[in-house]
Structures are given as structure tokens and as C-alpha cells.
């Protein structure tokens, strides 16, 4: 079992739909990252969070530390949101801290 | 603000050839990373560095080497290319480890034939 599991693997939505992508992890973490990989291949950071909820425009990220679960929501989805969304968890501290990545959700 | 610049974007190598993937960042980040991304898999850490002169192996270091002579640059060297090294490679940097925002290069698509 992977330490970071995302669902669904693929997602098709109509323009304007509310979308949810889920990320579950099985290890202790220091932070959780949501990344977006564009069709051209580049990766950009959307959110980094260790508790609660963050919002940026139409994107909302939440995390429940006790349940080891995070969700990324896109309100009123648009064709330009088409991308692969990647969940990554930060583990360790100091010079040993590293990211472990999920396999991504293709929207 | 250039961020993380990675070159080349595409490359085809023959088995046994060598090459260097270049990565430079202008954000004065201490931490730099090299990842590879294979179809259906999450990014895997090849090597990382926590500062100039300091490098360490990640999950999949075999067949690769790195150096970090300056804060800005973190090149990845493939000495004897093998088909198993066909992948997309990403360089990334962050100010202070996995608790800080990560910035990625545009990726290098490498094919070994």
C-alpha cells in the first residue's frame, strides 16, 4: 500500500461543476502539499497546509490531521482547470525532511 | 523572477552515453532536489542537497550523480545511460525542507534508446 493514496485517479467534469479530489496518507506528516501539473508538464504549488483550510480563488484545500485525510475542492470548474493534481506529504524534520508523492488525479 | 530553471526540455540519448541535466534557482533556497516521474507513479527522489557542498541520496540514486558547488546550481549527471532511465526529470527547490513551499522546474523528458 502506498503511503499517499489519491482518489479518484481520473475525473471528468462539466464546466461549472464542484469537484473534490481526495488524499489519504498513512504516516505522520509535518505538512501536506497540493500541486498542479499542467498538460505541458510543469508543476506548480497550489497549497501547503498543516491544519484547517486554505482558499485561493476557486480552489479550497482542507486537511484533517486526526483522520489523515485532505481534500482539494474546485468550485465552478473551468476547462483551464484541466491538469493533474498531485498530493504530497512532508515527512521528517530538518535536513531529513522530504516529500512523498501520490500518483496524481487527472482532471 | 526566473524561479527554477531546468535544461534541456527534451533529450534523446543512446545507451551508454552520458549527459548532465542543468538546474539553477535564483531564490537563494538552501534545499534542492532531483525527482523522476514515471507513468502511473508518484515522483521519486533521486538526490537532494541541503546546501552548497552537501548532497545525499534519495530513493532511486543508482545510475546518477550530483554536485552542489554553489547555492544556485544543482546539476544531475547520468554517466552510462540505460533504457530504465527513460523518464521525466524535475528539479525543485525550497527554502527549508518539506515544511516550506516547493518550486519546480519545467521538467526534462529524457528518452534512452
Output the keywords.
heterodimer; A: 107 residues; mainly beta; 5-stranded antiparallel beta sheet; 10 strands; 52% strand; B: 113 residues; 7-stranded mixed beta sheet; 4-stranded antiparallel beta sheet; 50% strand; globular
Strand order of the largest sheet of chain A: 1-2-7-6-5
Succession of helices and strands of chain B: EEEEEEEEEEE
Query: If helices are DSSP runs of H or I spanning 4 or more residues, what is the number of helices of chain A?
Result: 0
Q: Estimate the strand proportion of chain A.
A: over 45%
Total helix count of chain B? 0
| Radius of gyration of chain B, taken over Cα atoms and rounded to an integer in Å | 13 Å
Protein chains sharing the most extensive interface: A-B, 31 and 26 residues
Q: Which regions of chain A have little confidence, pLDDT < 50, spanning 5+ residues? A: none
Output mean pLDDT of chain A. 94
How much of the sequence lies in strands of chain B comes to over 45%
Biggest sheet descriptor of chain A? 5 strands, antiparallel
Q: Structural class of the helices, strands and pairings of chain A?
A: mainly beta
Please give the alpha-carbon distance between the first and last residues of chain A.
23 Å
Helix and strand pattern of chain A: EEEEEEEEEE
- Helix fraction of chain B, binned, reads under 10%
Question: Mean pLDDT of chain B, as a whole number?
Answer: 95
